[in-house]
Design goal:
By secondary structure, the protein is mostly helical. Helix content is 65%, strand content 1%. It is elongated.
Length: 928
């Protein structure tokens, strides 16, 4: 053991002018401080330089012959060797890695070691670098007059052992030492050295990469690489180091971190992303390296989702790599496909297996939004989204409206559609989407038929369901119209509407000769029939639904009137010609809506009314009014012909009364809305053509107004629906039923819609028997709702509907009893159980012949008797039970009066003897 205190006293006596803490306070010249320090070292350490050098060579695993190549007569070399020996002696005699009290040193002594190391780094490394490195402003040292490669290698061997002491890295004290060490290693590697020495240099680089910050390593390489006018060997060596470390694990992330830490504060994020992309996406890189980088960047983007600034670097780099060659395109496509493979092609189809939790689905959608929607030029091309369009629409349709992930899905779909060319790309995309042709080139991705989005719990789960599961929802392409209506890109909505309308005209032109052809083969199986009907009518049906939804979108009307009126009028002209030539009455519903939209557009612009293209519509409209037997079509042509008819004066109003009523209803003040509703009610009672021709617009306006929170407004709006059934009863009931069953709508709104359905049915009277299927199915579905209030309302509505239909509900009798049984057996909400019992009492009143239901009468009687006799039961339920018993008693007496006595069989039965054993689970209506 040596006296370490003596060595610390020696370090205290030295002047470290080139230590980082003293670099700005230098008062002596380099040669003067070196000479003074060398004298102190010779005085305190009496050992000769040759002996110190041999000791260092042995300790650092270098041969003694190697020491002979170092010139010990040079003061510069002597100073480096002596200082190396001092630090090496201290590290050998002090256990810096130990936390024991006897091994601890003071802070001042630790500071001396750090300053001595920085001083040694200046002389042993920085002053002996390759001469090209001094062209960089980074290295301020004066190069040695006679650099010694052997001494430099000795210093490198010392530093890779010395830097393992973590205490010396406090406050990044060794950062410049590591930079100098890397520069020294790179400079030596381009010299002709023996294999053994090259291996030692490789070990030094491996140490820096494995044990120090990878971001610092990249920053130092980039700083050295940025040196102007580097010689070719140095530039090549630095480039190879950059490539080898980029391909290592987390290489790309380290590169981004290095640039972020080295960049100035005011550097734009886009500019830094450009720098990273230019480094990563170079044509000179091997194909294997590019594949590794692509996988690294995808992992980096996934981990950097919270930090958008870092994420841009990854997205832009992916875009540049995608544009390099076809191999990269295929790799990126494969990785994107693997993201959704658990949903499209799951490997395990075990019933109930949870594939994704909500967090995983959310992370995947946010990642794709950043990959494709972060910028118009710095993200992946939108053409990659085309095969995933059905999958994205399915997810958008199935996820709840309140979920933020739906916005990500909407952004992805809008990005894909907005960048498609209107003449060829978009029509072909719509054709495949509305025909649901997933097989093609390229094949499209969709949810596997056994994958279910479970919304029963608070957290959404994607899981595997049973093989017999069948999705009862509408086609996912129907979600496209709702997505467009909620988006803020109104230009895209207009573009899609015109494309859909053009596609509709094309479908109609192709359908006429298809019906006339007689070369259709006979269909032998139900599967063939289903496929034939699906291929023949399904695209047209989905197009009609999409157009009917989009046509009421208010921003669409403004877009059509301002920028696309000419194209729209041209399509309307073609649609009229198809209707007149083909006599296709099936499109009258859509045609009426399109004509109303045309009327609104013409009313917005007098200049458009006088245009030549608009004037050409006058003759087809007259022919349509003369040929059509549909009153809605005739009414829709009347205001259009008045706009296009005789010479009009500028500013002449058209349909002023309807416009006034409409503007009043669109106001926010309840009294103004009700005044407008009263105007419409009076006009509809008087069969005013200006109002009856606008029935679809009135219906859409009434649905919007019905959502008002003011009872004064929505109750009067219910009266408007009641009046509308005299003009278009089936359309009103169908529209209200769809709104009632819409699970995404507000509960209060759905309850008001249920009231409107009943009022409209009462207005029709017994003739609503024609719509009993629509009405009953609507409320039967509502009685299965998990919402207690909604289920109660559905039962109450069913009871009133039974009375309204004069109890002609025989086809629904068994289903009603099952619902009542389920509610009374498992229901916990008292008002809903009251409603179920009320429906049961009404069903008893509607029984024409008790003998047809004789098997159910006894359990029903026992149930009602038990409820009526139970004093602890709810009073209203007891009252409903009493009413049911009274009805049953009257019908039994009436049966005994009307049936001949001889037809009744007398049977004496002793109860309690040889009765059959009851089953484990009895029906509630059989309970005594």
């Amino acid at each position: 053991m040596v006296n370490t205190a003596k060595y610390f006293a020696l370090l205290e006596s030295l002047s470290f002018e080139h230590a980082l803490a003293n670099e700005n306070n230098t008062t002596q010249t380099t040669s003067q401080s070196l000479g003074d320090n060398l004298r102190h070292l010779e005085k305190f350490v009496q050992l000769e330089v040759h002996q110190q050098l041999r000791d260092l060579c042995i300790a650092l695993q270098l041969t003694e012959e190697y020491a002979a190549t170092i010139d010990t007569e040079s003061p510069f070399n002597c100073y480096v060797v002596r200082l190396l020996h001092v630090l090496h002696t201290l590290t050998n005699n002090i256990n810096f890695q130990s936390d024991a009290k006897e091994d601890l040193i003071s802070v001042s002594h630790l500071k001396l070691c750090i300053q001595a190391t920085q001083e040694l780094s200046y002389y042993a490394l920085r002053s002996q670098l390759h001469h090209d490195f001094y062209k960089s402003p980074v290295f301020k040292a004066s190069p040695s007059s006679c650099p010694c490669p052997s001494l430099l290698l000795l210093s490198i061997q010392f530093f890779i052992r010395f830097l393992t002491i973590r205490q010396f890295h406090i406050a990044n004290a060794m950062e410049l030492v590591q930079r100098d060490l890397l520069a020294a290693v790179i400079g030596l590697r381009i010299q002709p050295l023996p294999t053994e020495q090259l291996a030692q240099l490789d070990t030094a680089i491996a140490y820096l990469w494995d044990n120090e910050s990878k971001a610092d390593f990249f920053r130092h390489v980039l700083l050295l690489k940025a040196t102007p006018n580097l010689c070719a060997p140095l530039a090549k060596e630095l480039h190879q180091q950059l490539l080898s470390k980029l391909s290592a694990a987390h290489g790309f992330a380290s590169l981004v971190a290095a640039l972020k830490s080295a960049a100035p504060q005011d550097l734009d994020t886009t500019r830094s992303s450009e720098i990273v992309a230019n480094i990563v996406a170079q044509r000179g890189f091997s194909g294997r390296l590019q594949q590794r980088l692509i996988r690294q960047i995808f992992d980096f983007c996934r981990l950097q989702l919270p930090d958008v600034n870092n994420l841009i670097c990854g997205v832009l780099s992916l875009r540049r790599l995608y544009e390099l060659n076809e191999s990269n395109c295929r790799s990126i496509n494969e990785i994107l496909a693997s993201h959704w493979q658990p949903l499209t092609e799951p490997t395990d189809l075990i019933n109930g297996l949870i594939i994704w939790e909500q967090a995983e689905l959310s992370e995947r959608l946010r990642l794709w939004q950043q990959l494709f929607c972060s910028s118009s030029v710095a993200c992946l091309p939108s053409s990659l989204l085309i095969p995933y369009l059905p999958l994205l629409l399915q997810l958008y349709q199935k996820l709840p409206d309140a979920l933020p992930e739906r916005q990500s899905l909407a952004a992805l779909v809008a990005r894909c559609l907005d960048n498609r060319e209107s003449l060829e790309e978009l029509p072909e995309l719509l054709r495949r989407l509305f025909s649901w042709q997933l097989d093609g080139n390229p094949p499209w991705k969709s949810l596997h038929q056994r994958i279910l989005i479970d919304l029963q719990t608070n957290l959404i789960r994607v899981k595997v369901t049973h093989a017999e599961h069948k999705d009862q929802e509408h086609a996912p392409c129907r979600a496209l119209s709702s997505l467009l209506m909620t988006a803020t890109n109104h230009a895209l909505t207009c573009k899609m509407f015109l494309s859909l309308l053009s596609f509709m005209v094309q479908q109609l032109s192709e359908s006429a000769p298809a019906f006339q052809s007689s070369d259709i083969d006979l269909l032998s199986t139900e599967t063939e029939l289903a496929d034939f009907l699906h291929g023949k009518y399904h695209p047209k049906l989905e197009l009609l639904v999409a157009l009917d939804q989009l046509v009421w979108h208010e921003p669409l009307k403004a877009q059509l009137a301002d920028a696309h009126s000419k194209q729209f009028i041209q399509l309307v002209t073609e649609l009229l010609e198809q209707r007149l030539s083909g006599n296709l009455e099936a499109v009258d519903q859509t045609l009426v809506v399109i004509l109303m939209l045309l009327q609104e557009i013409l009313e917005r612009s007098e200049h458009l009314q006088l245009a030549e293209s608009t004037r050409r519509l006058e003759q087809p409209l007259k022919q349509l009014a003369a040929q059509s037997v549909n009153p809605l079509v005739k009414n829709a042509t009347i205001p259009l012909l008045s706009l296009l008819g005789v010479q009009r004066h500028p500013g002449q109003p058209t349909g002023a009364a309807f416009q006034t009523a409409r503007e009043l209803i669109e106001q926010r003040q309840p009294h103004l809305q009700v005044y407008g509703i009263q105007m419409m009610l009076e006009a509809l009672r008087n069969k005013d053509p200006a109002f009856t021709s606008q029935c679809h617009r009135i219906l859409a306006l009434a649905l919007t107004t019905l959502k008002s929170k003011e009872s004064y407004t929505f109750l009067n709006c219910v009266r408007l629906f009641v009046q509308m059934v005299h003009i278009m009863e089936s359309e009103v009931l169908d529209m209200l039923s769809d709104e009632y069953l819409s699970e995404t709508a507000d509960l209060d709104y759905r309850l008001v819609v249920g009231e409107a359905i009943l009022k409209a049915a009462h207005e029709i009277g017994p003739l609503c028997y024609r719509y009993k299927g629509v009405l009953f199915n609507c409320f039967l579905h509502g009685s299965r709702s998990p919402l207690d209030e909604f289920r109660t309302s559905a039962f109450a509505n069913l009871a009133q509907l039974c009375r309204l239909l004069t109890y002609q509900v025989h086809s629904f009798f068994q289903e009603l009893l099952q619902l009542i049984d389920a509610e009374l057996s498992t229901g916990r909400y008292l008002p809903a159980k009251r409603g179920a019992l009320l429906v049961l009492a009404e069903l008893l009143a509607g029984m024409d012949s008790l003998l047809d239901y004789q098997e159910l009468l006894l359990p029903i009687y026992r149930l009602l008797r038990a409820i009526e006799a139970a004093e602890s039961c709810d009073p209203q339920m007891r009252q409903h039970a009493a009413n049911g018993l009274k009805t049953l008693n009257e019908k039994c007496r009436e049966l005994l009066k009307t049936e001949p006595v001889e037809q009744l069989q007398h049977e004496i039965k002793v109860l309690g003897i040889k009765e059959p054993v009851a089953s484990k689970k009895r029906h509630i209506l059989e309970l005594n």
